Amino acid sequence: QLQLQESGPGLVKPLETLSLTCTVSGASISSSRYYWGWIRQPPGKGLEWIGSIYYSGSTYYYPSLQSRVTISVDTFKNQFSLRLSSVTGADTAVYYCARGNLATYSWFDPWGQGTLVTVSS
Amino acid sequence: DIQMTQSPSSLSASVGDRVTITCRASESTSIYVNWYQQKPGRAPKLLIYAASTLESGVPSRFSGSASGTDFTLTINSLQPEDFATYYCQQTYSRRLTFGGGTNIEIK
After folding, report:
1. Sign, Cα dihedral of B76, B81, B85, B87
2. How far is the C-alpha of A48 from the C-alpha of A110, rounded, in Å?
3. Per-residue pLDDT for chain B (107 aa), expressed as one digit of tens each?
4. Exposed site from A58, B44, B69, B71, fewest CB < 10 Å?
5. Are A13 and A24 contacting, i.e. CB atoms less than 8 angstroms apart?
6. How far apart are CA A54 and CA A73, in angstroms?
7. Are B31 and B52 in contact (CB under 8 A)?
8. Rounded CA separation A69/A108 (Å)
9. Closest by alpha carbon to B23, among B94, B84, B100, B85?
């Protein structure tokens, strides 16, 4: 059964870089049928898509985060990662990773359980 | 970027009610619209994809429809486990976007 699990520091200092990893188990991250995404949710607020990475290596990012975000894949470890630089309190959120389905239409399923990242000194 | 305007942001309803949530896309998304349910402290769960296709295992009281750039999620005969927050999402553009969410509360 496919599972995704986020991991990384729960506390990051302002202006430092947030780094998270999503470990995929039960399926190969190298499949051309899927893409991989990061989504976040500030406390008490809605979902915000951060970015996605495709089999080809192409990446797409939320415009307002584009200058600070990098998503990459490690096929050997079956993981993909998120780096968000120069963080502020506005980046405090639960961060989810998810698999995107590249059928005729596209959706996120499944999702990881989410990990809370707090930006504070 | 494609904006998804979801309404209402919250509503109160009773068990057995019929509930309708709407998302309006800022431009054409074809039927590349999905709906998710999220309960407190949990990750979102896919309910409907391609505007109207029910994900496997999702109860048939949930349905989705599309008319132009307007997308609707309907819950017939609301059940206690349906009190949650619902989000639409467009995947027509690879720069994905979510609606702002609709929280369904118990009246």
Report:
1. negative
2. 17
3. 999 999 999 999 999 999 999 999 999 999 999 999 999 999 999 999 999 999 999 999 999 999 999 999 999 999 999 999 999 999 999 999 999 999 999 88
4. A58
5. no
6. 9
7. yes
8. 20
9. B100
* H and E: helices and strands count for chain A: 0, 11
Tell me, what's the pLDDT at A102?
Answer: 87
Contacts of A106 in chain B (CB under 8 A): 32, 91
Neighbours of B68 (CB within 10 A): 9
Assess whether pLDDT exceeds 90 at residue A104: no
Q: Is A114 on the interface with B (CB under 8 A)?
A: yes
Nearest by CB to B46, which of A96, A108, A112?
A108
CA distance, residue A94 to nearest chain B CA (Å): 10
What is the per-residue pLDDT across A13-50, written as a single tens digit (0 to 9) for each? Answer: 999 999 999 999 999 999 889 999 999 999 999 999 99
CA–CA gap between residue A1 and residue A78 (Å, rounded): 15
Instruction: Please indicate if any CB of chain A lies within 8 Å of the CB of B3.
Output: no
